[in-house]
Amino acid sequence: MAAEVSNTQIIFNNYIRKYAKEADMILKTSTMKLKVPEDCSDAVLVKNLYLSCDPYMRNRMNKIGAANDYVTSFTPAEPIIGIGVAKVVDSSNHNFKKDELIWGMTGWEEYSLIKSTQSLFKIEHTDVPLSYYTGILGMPGLAAYVGFYEISCPRKGETVFISAACGAVGQLVGQFAKLLGCYVVGSAGTKYKVDLLRSKFGFDDAFNYKDESNLNAALKRYFPEGIDIYLDNVGGEMLDAAILNMKLNGRISLCGMISQYNQQHREGVRNMFNVVAKQIRMQGFVVFLYYSLYPKFLDFMLPLIRQGKIEYVEDIADGLESAPAALIGIFSGRNVGKQVVRVAHE
Amino acid sequence: MAAEVSNTQIIFNNYIRKYAKEADMILKTSTMKLKVPEDCSDAVLVKNLYLSCDPYMRNRMNKIGAANDYVTSFTPAEPIIGIGVAKVVDSSNHNFKKDELIWGMTGWEEYSLIKSTQSLFKIEHTDVPLSYYTGILGMPGLAAYVGFYEISCPRKGETVFISAACGAVGQLVGQFAKLLGCYVVGSAGTKYKVDLLRSKFGFDDAFNYKDESNLNAALKRYFPEGIDIYLDNVGGEMLDAAILNMKLNGRISLCGMISQYNQQHREGVRNMFNVVAKQIRMQGFVVFLYYSLYPKFLDFMLPLIRQGKIEYVEDIADGLESAPAALIGIFSGRNVGKQVVRVAHE
After folding, report:
1. A278 to chain B: which residues are within 8 Å by CB?
2. Which of A31, A71, A88, A170 is most buried (CB neighbours < 10 A)?
3. Residue where one domain finishes, among candidates A288, A303, A332
4. Contact A283/A151 with Cβ under 8 angstroms?
């Protein structure tokens, strides 16, 4: 007979239209048998260790029509779903064995039964912190890698601007660009983050966008000759200002638009004609569609971490009960670095 | 002693900010000696035969700051400048001889002294109408070629949408796409043009955007499965609607934004998040930067014309005095096909 354990969960209350708030997620405790049910073939039952708070999750709180977005909605009255690091407790899937570590889509709860295991990655390297697989060695790391190397066609000496530059993706792109020999400036929303960008992450310069009454003027100050590459994590006003400041043949990689996710009516980008006149390429990308590059990315990233060539800052909230506040916090920029929730120690 | 002739000119009155009107161009007659002045080396004096009315010319009527646009302003009290077909009358440039035909940047006047000859092309093939070198065999033809083959990465069987589809660029892109085996729909602003698209140019379908209260719904009707390639000639609302209807990995080639040129405040594009979510690539391009491809383009295009495989419609206004009205007309879509002004018969 399998042990029955208490299983605390973060339940998605209902679809929302504007600002996400903690009350949209409800703490609930039920019980669970630590065994994959008989009728579930190819499933794994995991103990969740770390959960990842990512901007795209806000979109899953909307009621999304079929094929209108790259993600589907959360299901009301079911746990929030997100990327996490977990340990296999039981398995009916021959690819995963008890006590193995994985990262991938799991539930916001202590234990999850994962029926669709196609996007789970086995964690083979444990000489780095396990939480890294929610960030620098996980989806955001791959997003930074794809957004910079695959999408932006960077060349040594080019000028690179990164918004939300202290975030999980931004801090990595900035360091990739510095490793290549680019001039790199980032924007962030607090003085502390701006200092981090300059000191810890080695950006050439950084500014607090909240201190700037005119983003166009701010970008002109840092890029008097213009921007070759813009890695956009925010959209809206900043994207509009960046378009104005791109060089001829500039490249804008659209990684996400966190400034827009809580808004019912998205801001218009007014400077599109400059995309014609300056022959700019704007490329949106969805990291989930690049998962096949993960092994290549891991081969690239692990040595950089082991050799201390890349800095990484994460913001770890303790306990599943802190998860709703942690997720809400990323939309006001309360986190410093990658926001993670520790559910349990291994 | 060189002959002195009367030289009627279309003079640019002054910078404008909103709608261009005929009164912004003034007819003036002066005299001119039919000889390149002694102090002008490497210049040509030409008799203009055909002048081209192109949307980008509206931008040259604005006061443009340095490096803010891909073109410079017209000079007030000087003739309008544009692409034309002309015959060399006198030359101090060893590349061009008397009686040779050229196309390139010339003045809106009967005779022009062209001091910068770098972007003049010699016309070698005269078995096609000379006016074609303002369109199908000139800059708009090259724009259609670059916008489709170089920028849009088209594949057989893909779905292609073209706005301002009856224009010089649109009608050619549509036919290129049909030759490749794509499904092609175009939009235009009159029933007559819509009929032309279906009958003469062989588009699979076409619609009058002025009859549609909801452009998003219109595009959904013609592209229930979505659009692979959008060749945007108009910008604004149509671009916003197209973004909503692109398929995953769709490509938008931004060729021009005629709907925006007469507006002081350009419309915002609100659906940019879909560019992320659908992994869309938007690429602006400036045909002047692709002039090196002209010989390759000519080798491609001339046989298609000679074999009758491409239809081409031009709208020829007669006489230099009709040029201001012809140029203003393209912004309200009064022209059917490529708008040309015949200044003189060869």
Report:
1. 70, 284
2. A170
3. A288
4. yes
Flag whether B293 is in a domain.
Answer: no
**Do both A334 and A193 map to the same domain?**
no
Range of the domain at B332: 4-136+312-342
* CATH code of B243's domain: 3.40.50.720
Residues B114 and B171 in one domain: no
Domain count, chain A: 2
Interface test with A, best of B54, B234, B276 (most A CBs within 10 A): B276
Residues of chain A positioned with their CB less than 8 A from the CB of B278 = 70, 284
CB spacing of A265 vs B269 below 8 angstroms: no
Rg of chain B's alpha carbons, rounded to an integer? 21
Residues B106 and B186 placed together within one structural domain of the fold? no
Q: Are A279 and B260 an interchain contact pair (Cβ–Cβ within 8 Å)?
A: no
Residue B235: band (very low, low, confident or very high) from pLDDT cuts 50, 70, 90? very high
CB contact under 8 A, B257 and A268: no
The model scores a pTM over 0.80: yes
Cα A329 to Cα A341: distance, rounded to the nearest angstrom = 12
> With 90 as the cut, is the pLDDT of residue B139 above it?
yes
Contact at CB, A276 and B256, closer than 8 angstroms: yes
Residues of A in contact with B260 (CB under 8 A): 273
What one-letter code names the amino acid at B178?
Answer: K
Element (H, E) at A9: strand A4-12
**Given this model, what pLDDT does residue B68 score?**
53
Q: Is residue A307 part of a domain?
A: no
DSSP-derived secondary structure letter, B149: I
Measure the CA–CA gap between A22 and A8, rounded to whole angstroms.
16
ipTM for the predicted complex comes to 0.87
Model pLDDT for residues B99-138, shown as the tens digit of each residue: 999 999 999 999 999 999 988 999 999 999 999 999 999 9
Q: What is the pLDDT of residue A69?
A: 58
Domain shared by B280 and B316, yes or no: no
Same domain, A215 and A334: no
With pLDDT > 70 as the criterion, what percentage of chain A qualifies?
98
CATH number of the domain to which A332 belongs: 3.90.180.10
Give the list of residues 6+ apart from residue B197 with CB closer than 8 angstroms, or none: B165, B166, B171, B174, B186, B188, B203, B206
pLDDT in tens, B5-38: 999 999 999 999 889 999 999 999 999 999 999 9
Claim to verify: residue A128 and residue A151 sit in the same structural domain: no
Residue A173 in any domain: the answer is yes
State the smallest CA–CA distance between residue B182 and chain A in angstroms: 23
Helix axes A236-245, A215-222, angle to 10 degrees: 40
Q: Are residues B80 and B179 in the same domain?
A: no
B121 and B163 together in one domain: no
In Å, how far is A274's CA from the nearest CA of chain B?
A: 7
